[in-house]
Each structure stands twice: as C-alpha cells, then as structure tokens.
Write a structure and sequence with these properties.
By secondary structure, the chain is α/β, with parallel strands linked by helices. Helix content is about 35%, strand content about 20%. It has a 4-stranded mixed beta sheet. Strand 3, helix 3 and strand 4 form a beta-alpha-beta unit. The protein is globular, with a radius of gyration of 13 Å.
Length: about 110
C-alpha cells in the first residue's frame, strides 16, 4: 500500500500500550514536490476519515468498538513545514469527530 493508493487502508491494528485502533498511512514519498505530496496526503486522509465516519471501520474491524481511532501517518522522510502546516489544520477537524491524527518518521 502507499500514500498514493487513495482507495485502500494501508494497515489496521490495535496499539498495545493505549488500546487505540490504529489506521496507518504508509507514506513512502519524498518531499521534492511538497504541494503534490500534501495533496496526496489530503486525499488519503479524506478516504480514512470517510472510512471511519461511514461506520465501515466497525464492519471491517469489529474489535474496534469502544476504541478511539487514530490515523497514524508513517513517513519514510521527515515532514517539512508544508506538511506540518497541513496537519495542524487537519488535526482539529479530525478531533471534532473523535479521530486523532499523528505522524512520525519510520526508524531506519
């Protein structure tokens, strides 16, 4: 799966420490085209948010019931200011419907 594959959830699981359900976005893209990268993340995040909001997550992953959903963007490359600014706008919107959005760089 990849950040470019808008119609797929890359990974779903439960975070052991918190019990939250993790929906992971595997972001392998570099940031050479920052605007294009942000657009790809926007499309992918929109699909993830719709997946949760529509109730499809509950159908596909019934173990999720009662667990807070987290969209975790796991990048291969550090996120520049354009990406961080985008996420700063997305996080409160997602939080308003009970979804946490976070990101980190994959340790190599």
């Amino acid at each position: 799966m990849s950040a470019l594959d808008e119609d797929a959830i890359d990974s779903i699981g439960v975070e052991t420490a918190s019990g939250k359900v993790l929906l992971t976005i595997a972001d392998h893209l570099d940031w050479a085209d920052e605007n294009g990268h942000v657009l790809a993340l926007q499309k992918k995040l929109d699909a993830y948010l719709a997946f949760v909001a529509s109730g499809e997550l509950n159908e596909v992953y019934p173990d999720r019931l009662g667990r807070k959903p987290v969209i975790d963007i796991v990048g291969q490359f550090p996120m520049p200011m354009a990406g961080r600014s985008f996420l700063a706008k997305v996080r409160p919107i997602a939080a308003s419907v009970g979804i946490e959005v976070r990101n980190h760089v994959l340790e190599q």
